[in-house]
Write a structure and sequence with these properties.
alpha+beta, 6-stranded antiparallel sheet, 23% strand
Length: 183
Amino acid sequence: MSMLRITLRRALAATTAGLLLLPLAACSGEDEVARDQPAPTGTASSDQDVEAEEPTSGPDVGFGPTDYAFTLQVSCFCPYAAVPVRVTVEDDRVVEAVFEKGGGRGGAKAGEPAPEFFELTIDDVIAEAEDAEEAGAARVDVTWPEGSDYPTEVYIDRDERMADEEIGYTLSDVKVVGEGIGG
């Protein structure tokens, strides 16, 4: 399954680049969304087929480690928007999601369990972006730093005509606890 990867360095740069490329996209007949193509991992000759090695992590496979913790901030029209939550994952399952700080419209208190909608693994965030893209969302932006095994930001606007359904995720401070590889 391919994963939309758009790296946004700065909002202004992205807007400028988009405006400059708009005439090209309109004429090309291609999607208006840029997609990274995976680099070839092997070569083939006419005499012999060489099988490419399958990646074990990254945007086309998902986040490899199965035991880790990370900080998740969700931006949405919802209680607790932008309040950082520390998510702990064991065996690819969320075992804990607690507020790192207090505040937000919901009155979060540091150390308290976060609501269930914060119980997301990194793979869950990646899958949500992929699902939104496949469903034809109006906008799906993923900031995936080169060489990183996970995105740092995901923004989804499922319907540009609808207000307050947009959602954004910021992932930071990822600490791998175990060396297990999921997939």
